[in-house]
């Protein structure tokens, strides 16, 4: 007896959700279909009822992760607008950086920023998934650029600032995660250094 469309959609979402977690935690290449389907609660044979290939699944995961990240960023900008209205123009920027470069975000590999979470895998995945990643990264930079324009920067200044800032944030987070088990103190120091560097850059721009 077949299953309903609704159940099929739920099963597909369960597979994508499990793949999202495992890909971030272990890396795309390290996750086989047997482990993936077991994590999702299904047998391996059911995989091809939903996806033509692992590459197709990776593309679905990347599209889902980037879309969810855009929603989170939109909510963050809303919170930032409220902070700006409170009279502290540096507040939104500082809060966002502190949240991103926090030990909580560092330790939340499975649900954190997909730009950092998938950065190491992107060169080795299919073109469709790479395109999803690039589109999501561009959307994040565009949103940060718009925030910079809202703080009085020209579009060119805001775009350059967004790229430099996000590169600093993502790089600090990736390095911090890379050494957290071997050297927790260094991991914490990398996060702190990233926050301080961005804060100093913001202060210099404000004083300039």
Structural commentary:
The protein is mostly helical and 208 residues long. 74% of the residues lie in helices and 0% in strands. The protein is globular and about 65 Å long. 28% of the residues are buried.
CATH class descriptor name of the largest domain: Mainly Alpha
Number of helices: 9
Share of helix among residues? over 70%
Q: Please indicate the count of domains.
A: 2
CATH superfamily of the largest domain: Tetracycline Repressor, domain 2
The global form is: globular
Query: How large, in whole angstroms, is the Cα Rg?
Result: 19 Å
CATH architecture descriptor name of the largest domain: Orthogonal Bundle
Report the strand count: 0
Termini distance?
Answer: 70 Å
- Whole-number mean pLDDT: 88
Order of helices and strands: HHHHHHHHH
Low-confidence stretches: 78-92
Q: How is the biggest beta sheet arranged?
A: none
Q: Report the portion of residues in β strands.
A: under 5%
- Oligomer designation: single chain
CATH topology of the largest domain: Tetracycline Repressor, domain 2
GO molecular function: DNA binding
Keywords: DNA-binding, Transcription, Transcription regulation
Protein name: TetR family transcriptional regulator
